[in-house]
Design a protein that fits this description.
Strand order of the largest sheet: 2-3-6-7
Structural class: alpha+beta
Mean pLDDT: 83
CATH architecture of the largest domain: Up-down Bundle
CATH topology of the largest domain: Outer membrane efflux proteins (OEP)
Oligomer: single chain
Number of helices: 10
Radius of gyration: 39 Å
Low-confidence stretches: 1-37
CATH superfamily of the largest domain: Outer membrane efflux proteins (OEP)
Number of strands: 8
Length: 430
């Protein structure tokens, strides 16, 4: 069977088909484009590169080496002292010369084994603090990498939306030009359509600049000043179920900043034990051999010396460390309150952005797509003006952009919650 169309009907049919195609291209399912693997970066690759080559993380290896040196130093004991004493020599009378001299050779050392152990414990506790700081820094730079990655992904999807907007605007220019030539539309409508196309092209140029800048920020996370990729791969849609707030609140014990406070507390506890050990004076032991030149006899000598005075020589330092321990407890409680508050805020933001995205994708955008198609039919029959059609087209594009922004917000809030709790907050739908 052969179908025949008039030129006017064929023209309207072609434009309608282009409009349908553009709407389909605007669907959220269409924003994932095929990419060349050699120039595409995944989130896992970005995080791996960050952990391996981030300049801020490189300094921790030197901090650890320095702390290892302090640990070795803390374990060193005081060296024994060798003393030689010459008596009853070079005098006058019977003590003239060396005939009556007495020579004493002695060794002195300090009993500080317990003190050395306490110093070592302080150094070990400080080593744990460096480990905590390194984990926190890794989490921070990893989270920042995820932010840059998601922003780049959002700019890419925004560029695709801008391309579709250009496609729609260009189709509108062509249709309006034909209607103007046939006398069914004024030149003013054509000029407005051409201006709309130019504005959409400017928006697309802005998207390219945003993508380039975002890629540069992302690659700088692992020290690259010349990015080796041109796009990122992934999707912004967050379709999984979210763990309940009460479950997440229980996971705050995994927060690395809280663990850092525990490391600080262990340091102060070790310092307190060291200060208590230092309150007692150190005993010094002496032993040696004495030779009497006049008789040729040898004798053994031994001695014990300790400072004279009060028993507690370090009460000020002990009071200081005790106060610092109390401060640590108070600050830990305050931090836990701040963390729980931040978790609640991010959780509510995530719930809201997900709700908005769901309404947009299920109720708003499908209806606007249908409305745009119906408006196109009305425009063809003269029941709708160019302005009314343009308003609907803009509403659809704005809704698509709003959906993109809420999907991005959901992902950003998700990574902030995971940063606070240290756990993955989504589970696959059953």
């Amino acid at each position: 069977m052969t179908l025949f169309f008039t030129s006017d009907k064929r023209r309207h049919l072609t434009f309608t088909m282009l409009l349908v195609l553009a709407i389909l291209l605007l669907s959220p399912l269409s924003v994932i484009a095929a990419a060349n693997k050699s120039t595409t970066l995944s989130l896992a690759e970005a995080i791996s590169k960050t952990f391996q080559h981030n300049p801020d993380l490189a300094s921790f290896q030197f901090q650890k080496k320095a702390q290892q040196g302090r640990l070795v130093q803390a374990g060193l004991s005081a060296k024994p002292e060798v003393t030689i004493v010459l008596e009853d020599a070079l005098g006058n009378g019977d003590l003239e010369g060396f005939d009556s001299a007495q020579t004493t050779l002695s060794v002195n050392w300090v009993l500080e084994q317990a003190l050395r152990q306490k110093r070592t414990q302080v150094a070990i506790a400080n080593q744990g603090l460096i480990d905590s700081d390194q984990l926190i820094k890794q989490l921070d730079v990893g989270t920042q990498t995820a932010r840059y990655f998601l922003q780049t992904l959002a700019f890419q999807e925004g560029a695709l939306l801008a391309d579709k907007a250009i496609y729609l605007a260009d189709a509108m220019v062509k249709e309006t030009k034909k209607r103007t030539n046939s006398g069914k539309a004024s030149l003013a409508e054509l000029y407005r359509a051409e201006a709309e196309l130019a504005q959409r092209q400017l928006i697309r140029e802005d998207s390219k600049h945003e993508i380039d800048a975002s890629i540069r920020l992302l690659s700088a996370q692992w020290g690259e000043t010349v990015p080796m990729f041109t796009k990122v791969a992934g999707k912004l849609t967050l379709a999984e179920k979210i763990i309940s707030f009460e479950e997440l609140k229980q996971q705050l014990n995994n927060n690395l900043n809280l663990n850092r406070f525990l490391s600080l507390q262990r340091i102060k506890e070790a310092e307190l034990k060291l200060a208590e050990e230092q309150k007692d004076p150190l005993w010094r032991i002496q032993t040696g051999l004495r030779h009497d030149q006049s008789t040729g006899d040898y004798s053994l000598i031994a001695g014990l010396s300790l400072p004279f005075g009060g028993n507690n020589q370090n009460q000020g330092r002990i009071a200081e460390v005790n106060a610092q321990l109390e401060q640590q407890h108070v600050e830990t409680t305050a931090l836990r309150i701040r963390l729980e508050t931040a978790l609640f805020v991010y959780y509510k933001k995530l719930e809201h952005s997900q709700h908005v995205a769901e309404i947009l994708s299920t109720n708003v955008i499908p209806r606007l797509e249908k409305a745009l198609l119906e408006s196109r039919k009305a425009y063809e029959t003269g029941k709708y003006s160019y302005l009314e059609l343009k308003v609907l087209q803009t509403e659809l594009l704005d809704a698509q952009l709003n959906l993109l922004e809420n999907n991005l917000a959901s992902q950003l809030n998700k990574i902030e919650i995971e940063r606070l709790t240290g756990v993955q907050i989504t589970t696959p739908d059953q």
